[in-house]
Structure formats: C-alpha cells, structure tokens
Amino acid sequence: MAYLEIKNILKKYGGKIVLNNISFDIFKGEIFAIAGPPGSGKTSLLKIIAGLLPPDEGKIYLEGRDITNTPPSARGIGMLFEIPPLYPDRTGFENIAFPLRLQKLPENEVRKRVYEVADLLGIKHLLDRTPGTYSGGEYQRAALARVLVRRPNILLLDEPLRNLDAKIQEIMRSWFKRLQRELGITMIYATHDPFEGMAVSDRMAILLNGVVKQLGKPFETYFNPKSLDVAEYVSIPAINILEGSVKLLDDTLNIRIDEISISKRIREKSIFMGKEKVLVGIRPEDIIVSKEPGAGKIEGKVSLIQVFGSDILLTIEIHGTAIRAMAEKASGIREGETIYLKFNEEKIYLFDPETKDAINV
Amino acid sequence: MSIVTKALKYICVGIFLLWILVPVAWMVCLAFKSYPEWRVAYFFPKDPTLSNFIILFEPKRIIGMMGATAIVDPVTLPLINSLIVVGISTVIAVFIGFFTAYGASRYNSPGPFSLFFTLLTRMLPPATFVTPIMVYYSNLKLLDTHLGLILLYAAVTVTYGIWILKGFIDNIPREWEEAALLEGATHSQVIFRVTLPLIKSGLVVSGLFIFLLNWAELLFALVLTNVNAVTLPVHISKYVGAVGQLYGPQAALGIISSLVPLIVGYMIQKHLVTAFTFGMVR
Amino acid sequence: MMVEVKLEVENLTKRFGDLVAVNNVSFEVRESEFFSLLGPSGCGKTTTLRCIAGLEMPDEGKIIIKGRDVTTLPPQQRGISLVFQEFAVFPHMTVYENLAFGLRVRKFSRDEIRKKVLAIAESLHLTDQLEVKAGRLGLSEQQRIALGRSIAVEPEILLLDEPLTLVDAKIKESMRRELRRLQKELNITILYVTHDQLEAMMMSDRIAVMNAGRLLQVGAPMEIYENPQNVFVARFIGSPTINILCAKLERENGMLKLIINDVKLDVSGKFSKEVGEKYVGRSVLLGIRPEDLLILKEKESKYDVKCKVDMIELLGNRMEVHMRLGKELVRALTLIRFDIREGDEIFLRLYPEKIYIFDKETEERIV
Fold first, then answer.
1. B154 and B243: one domain?
2. B38 and B140 inside one domain
3. I want to staple A2 with a disulfide (CB 3.0 to 4.6 A). Which of A25, C77, C83, C284 is the partner?
4. A350 has which bridge partners?
5. How many CB pairs (< 8 A) connect A and C?
C-alpha cells in the first residue's frame, strides 16, 4: 500500500495554474525525486505536502488517513528549505534545539536529542559556533539536523544542493543517499537538475509546467521518455531533435533524415498511417563519429569542441543545423574538420510532430 | 587626482565641518561661562562655572543677579515630561509599526497604496492641521495632558516605524517562519520567537529614529500644552528672546537636551552597526 | 608565431588583516583566450579578479594590461568590463534596453544596436523577453542579461565572476556552448572565475587552479586533467572525483610493486631509478580516476582487487558505482550494466598506466 498518496492537487496563483491535477503515490522508505525546471511548481508542491500551503483542490493521504487539513506540525513531516532557517544570532545548538523547545521538551531530553543528531551528521564541532562561520556543506548539515531532531517520518528536501560548490554537491548528493539508507526515512527530493534526481532517487517524477509528465524509475525516465519535453529535460548534454520523413512498407518503417536512412520493423503500423513526418531524437552519446565517410553517414563540419569530463563534446554544423555528438579525447578531431556521423539505430527516439508524444516501436 | 583637486576637496569638507561644528562648540563653551562672560568674543571661558546649570533648575536665583526675568520655572518638569511623553509614544509607535509592517510584509495587508498614503500624510505641513487638532483636543479635554501628546506623537511617527520595519521583515526569508510553523509553532510564537529576535536591530533603529523626531518636536507641544505637560523644546523656546537674555543657561539647556538622545544612541551602538550591515542571508 | 599577451598578473598578493587571500599569484592571459580561474569557495579567485578589475588594491604585485601597468589605475581606465556574481541589471528598463545600454552610450547607430542586441539575445535565450522589464524576470534570466550587456560592448578583456551560478542546469549547458561560441566569434579575451570544474573544462583554452590563495597549476583543460601536479588538482578536476588510496611501495624480485590490500601491482615501468630508490619501503598516495576503472565479476588478472558494491547512482547513460576496498571507499564510472547490484562482491581492475602516484607528505605528483 502506498505510504503517502497525493491526489488531484490543483494550485493557482492569481489566475495562473501552477499545479495541474497532480497525483502520485510514494512508498515507505523510498527516495522519491521531483525533478523540473525552476518555476515548474516543485516548491509549491512540497509546501502543500508539508501543509504550509493549502491546495485549491485535491487531497493528501498518509497511511490511508486524510491529512489535507491537518496542521503542518502534526503530519510527522520535516522540510529542508532552499534557504534553511539557521538563525545567525544563535549557536548551532540553539538552532537545532529550537523545534524541541517549541514543543516544551524537558531540557535534558533536548540536550540528548541534539547531541544524537549532531553525532549522526558529524557536526558536533559546530554546536558552539554560529551559522555565519559554517562552510556550505556544514550549513546544510546543520539545517538538516534541525529538521531531523524532531524525528519526522517523511523528509522533504527543496533543492538541498543549490547553494553549494559543484565539487561539494557531488559529495553531498551521495551523502544524502547514504544517510537515507541508514535511517530508512521516506524522502521526497526536489531538484532542477535531472541528473541529480536520477542519481539520488529510487523513483522519479518529472514535473513540467505544473504537470507530472512522467513517473518511474530513473532508468525508465532516461531511456524511455514518454514525450519530447521529457526527453529534452532529462538529457544533458541536450538531445538532438531532427525532422525526418517516414514511409511505411509492410512491417518496416523507413525513416529518412538527409542522407541517413533507418529501417525499423514495427508492430503498431496504425500509428504511422497517413504520417509523412516524424521527429527523431538522438543523444550526443549515441552518435558515432568518424573521420571516414561511409554508407548511411551524414557529413558535417565541426564548429566547436568542448571538453566534457573524460570525453569531448562536438558541435557539428550540417546544412545550417547544429548537431551535438560525443567523441573520445583520443580521436584527435579538430575544429573546422569535416567528419561523418552515424546514428546508433537502437537508440533513436521517435516523436509525433503534433502531439510531441513518444512513439513506441 | 591632482594635488589641487585633492586640496580643494579637503578645503570644502573642512569649511562644511566648521560651519556645522563651530556653533555647537560655542554653545558648549558658553554653557560654562559665568554671567560677565556671556557676551565676550573669545571661545574658552576664563573662569569655568556650573552656575548656568544650577540656574536651570533653580531660576529664582537669577532674580537676585540680573533683575527681572520671565523664566521662573525650573527645567525639571519639562525634562521629565519629555522623557515620559517621548519615551511612551516611541514605544507605542514601534509596537504598532511592527505589527502593521508584519502584516504588510507577510500578508500584503495593508496594501501598497495604504502604505503610500501614510507617507503622504507626512508630507502635509504640520502647521496646516494644528488648529483643527487643537479644537479637537479641547473638546476631548486632552489639552495640556500627557496622554494627548503621547497619542499625537505616536500617530504621527508610526509611519516611519512601519517603513523601516517592513524593510527588515522583508529581509527575513519567509521559509524561516514556515519552518517554525512546521515545527509546531503557532503564528504568534512565530512572530515573537522567530521574527522579532531576528529584527532586533530594526526595532532599535526605528525606535531611535522616532525618538529623535519626537524629542525635538516643538509646534504641537507649544500649542497643545500649557503648564502640566510642557516638554523640553517648549521650555527652550522660552529662553529665546526672553527678558534678561539668559545666554548662559540657554547654552546649558542645549547641552542637557542633546544629552539624552546622545546617551540613548551610545547605548544602542552595537545594534545600529548590525542594522546597517544587514547582509546575513546566505 | 608571436602570441600577444593581453593581461599579465605578477606576484599578486592581497591580505585582509591576517588572512592572505591571494598569495604571490602570477599568470598571463593571451589575446582572444578564454582563461579560467578555478577553485573552491574562498580560494582567492574572486579577490584576484577584483584586483585585476581595480576594485581592490593589491598589497604587492603588478597588473599589466596590454603592456600598460594599470596597478594603480581606477577601474574605468583599465579597458575592462566586469560582470559580477551579484550582477547589475537595470530593473526598470526592458531587456532590450539593458542589452543596448552600453552600445547607446558608445553612440552606435540604431540599426547596428538592433542587430547586435538581437544576436546576443538569441544566444542567451532571451529573444522572447526583449520587451519585458528586467526587474520582473527571474534570477536565471537576469544573470544572462548582465552577461549580455557586457558582451555587447565587446571590451578588451571581459572579467566574469561566476556568471552562471544561478542559472538552472538545463540552460547552463547551452549557455556554456553559446558563451564559448560568442567568445570565439567576437574574439573577446575572457577571464572567467568559477568553482565548477566541468564548466571551466568546457569553455576554457587554459585553466589556472587555485586553492587557499595560491596558484597550483596552469594549463589547457586536457593537460591538467591528464597531468595533475598534485593531489588537490587531481581531486578538483574531473567528475566524479579521482580516487586517492594509500599504498606501499615495495621491492620484490628486483621489481617495484605497489601494495594495496592483498594486491601487488607491478609499477616498475613508471619509476626512474632514483625516484624508485627514494620511495621504496614508504607509503605513497595512489590516484586513479573512476572512469579508468574496470569492473569485473571474476578475478582475471594480477591487477584485479576485490571490492564490495556499496551504492549505485545512475547518471544518464553511466553509473557511478561506490565500492569498499578494504576500509576505503572507491568510485568507478561505467556504462550502464545490469549485472552489478548493491551488495555484490566484484573485482576492480587497476591499470598501472592509468595510476598517478603522489608523495604522501607533500602531495606532489611523483609519477
């Protein structure tokens, strides 16, 4: 049974719909990511789940109980905000103890819990200092301590890595995942970075313009995007989208993009009846680059080379369109060179030009 | 920058400083000069004395020295009245200002127009509504009362409280209050245990600002008080052009009345620094 | 071919009280080069930039722009353009007016301004918002506007202080491409400050890595990636971070071997005779990049070490596999494969050619 059920949430700001009929379930003990560009409604959704913002429509159920009208502090939910509340004029200890003091817990209990959580997160040395002296990673951990000290059952994280250095983000991302494994707490993680969402989560929802466009395991979302906007959102470096013409012959679909001709055996012929054009998506990592021309290859000129981790990212001009492809550092390709591209046919995605939905073959 | 330009800049600043500070220095020196020295042309008193200060508190002594004078009241009453009236009205103005600012910042209520409107009323020259207020007060039997002045001062300066405090409250991220709500705080606990402590310096700054405005207020005090609620500025005004031309005591009075804001300002220095270097949000 | 030097920084030192923020930093930026100052927060890169811009006065050292010693000159007279992290955008003007501002001041014709502004707006994905008042837009857009404004006037040297930090991940990727393209097209010399090594690697001709006020290494991206001179640079460049393990160098049968756990790696070929002698019997630091590790189900060669899979993170079409090698945590980057699960026992191949060896105390690279 689902632990947390979000049903038909609708939220408007002014006249504008920010969250449009959002529904999904979250299972106990999983890390669930909500990934979407800024402005897609992630923070609003988290605040609605926490009870800080009332939805215009819709309900939230926790273990079967309707908590839509339950006050935030009674839901057993903790939230790590994007700008975490660490009051600058108080020590780490005071900050972390704050929620417990609100609940009027006896002082020795407060002390016990604060030390417990500080130990868990490795921040005992910060307890006597004020937040102004913390480093980026320390600040996040202290903020998390304040949330965890109340022992919530569900933890909401709103872009927890946003304000950290890139290198520290890498470390903290794994750290969050490890922590969750250790505590077994149910985590909802909101981020604008699709890769962060994929790395951290067990399951992921892609939120675009207030609508959940796809939900599933990260692997699924990356390799089987259901629509063009999902495919574009989750791909870094950006996926190439090209227009191709299609012809149906018996069981085989023939797709032509320039000089490239791809034939695929398809089951559902009806989708392609009367269609002449299709949008083809192919990722830079799925394009094979070589210096030799050959059958089924397009010719192009390298206009830009960028180092991308341990590979290089090429921007190639073909008939005025820019296509991006990955190549190995050792390939010795230079800017201005003419090279030849071949697509990995297993990895192309087809999208309907009107509806922009993915077409499954 | 050439030497000439630099020299010119220093000279200009120097002249400006002299313009401001010389009269103040003169006043300080004058306060310690005894009667024969009041009208002399040199700065420092040859024979410093505290008699001027004593005269302020016991004017009857003058009569023996210089003949008649119009000032027979000691400064004690006006001093105390000022402290009471300005002190209480400042507290009220900051208090109401804070809650209004909070509403304006977090709930957009009052809206921007209403806030602007309160500022507009400040632009009206006070002299235009002195008479109506006097009539008002006369009917309400508030003339020459502490309460009357307190209400007026608070009402007039609350705008500044709202404006200053709203800025400070805006600076506190909303999430900090939401986190407390999530942690089980009631709305009033959020205001008193989260927001208020965080804007301590704002309260201090607006308090000082309002205090200074009210401390020096003359027009209304003059018109609305007579004997009981006379404030310090009113008392000072009596010395200007008074029979007997009591320069010495006047200078002494100047020092005393400036002393109060000075002391208050000194005590809250730390908060002023915090207030002006407000950049703590990560 | 004589390469013209645009900017020279000589022995720059800047102190704030006891803190030496910039410690004897020297480097040069060439004409039309994209040069990055890379380092963690607080390493002194922004202070260095500010000294170059003229916003801070250095305690020692010289700044020379195009042969002119500008160390004592105010910012306006240096021929530079600077975009802050807390960028300057005119909120009451539209995006178009913002971008056109510098050009109008320099008295370009209306048509020329229009052309330039449209071109820049397109690269920065702002074409749809040209008529919107800048104050109404989000931080991501505002940062791009500030960038556009300073590019529009085509300055001698453009100084950028982390201009893309607030831009979201998707747009960042295309901006890095566009900015690089614009820079090449307009032949602008750029000095770029960032903490993101991926960004510096993607856009720069050369990178200077800084830490704690010192300049650690300068070179082209590939150069620094392949030949880091010390542990810090090796760790800082490359994502995921390089694995650094402790190992002992022993001599066995006349051959030099690195001992890690139960595995002995033959590294004789890597050391010259003197260096080998110096380190025999000592502990050293071994560095190997996650992408250079091979995961195997069975031990197949003498280079394979036994590990236990701790956690797997999916990154697009790659996986980051966290493993325990004895007590140490090792990360490998592989293409997606389904035969590895969390908790599995696997073998990790450490190719000797791909290993970097560092001195344990100085953290300098030995081999």
1. yes
2. no
3. A25
4. A280, A359
5. 108
- Listed residue (C273, C275, C247) closest to C261, CA to CA: C247
Q: Please list every residue in chain C whose beta carbon sits closer than 8 Å to the beta carbon of residue A196.
A: 169
Determine the residue of chain A that is closest to C169 in CA distance.
Answer: A193
Output the DSSP codes for B148-165.
HHHHHHHHHHHHHHHHHH
The residue assigned the tokens 């120097």 is B14
What is the set of domains in chain A, with CATH numbers?
4-234 (3.40.50.300), 240-359 (2.40.50.140)
The per-residue pLDDT string of chain B (282 residues; one tens digit each, 9 = 90 and over) reads 678 888 999 999 999 999 999 988 888 888 888 777 777 777 787 777 787 787 777 776 655 555 555 566 778 888 889 999 999 999 999 999 999 999 999 888 878 888 888 888 788 888 888 899 999 899 998 888 899 999 999 998 999 899 889 989 998 888 889 888 888 888 888 899 889 888 888 898 899 889 988 998 888 988 888 888 888 888 888 877 666 677 788 888 888 888 888 888 887 777 777 666 654 433
Residue B282 lies in a domain: no
Residues C217 and C331 in one domain: no
CA separation for the pair A47, A9 (Å, rounded)? 12
Is the ipTM here above 0.85? no
Q: Which chains touch A (3 or more CB pairs under 8 A)?
A: B, C
Q: Is residue C364 part of a domain?
A: no
| Residue C290 belongs to domain spanning | 243-359
Contact call for residues B265 and B282 (beta carbons, < 8 A): no
Among C236, C265, C280, the domain boundary falls at C236
Within 8 A of C203 by CB-CB distance, chain A residues are 306
Do A216 and A203 contact (CB within 8 A), yes or no? yes
Report yes or no on B140 lying in a domain. Answer: yes
C-chain CB neighbours of A233 within 8 Å are: 170
Structurally, chain C folds into a number of domains equal to: 2
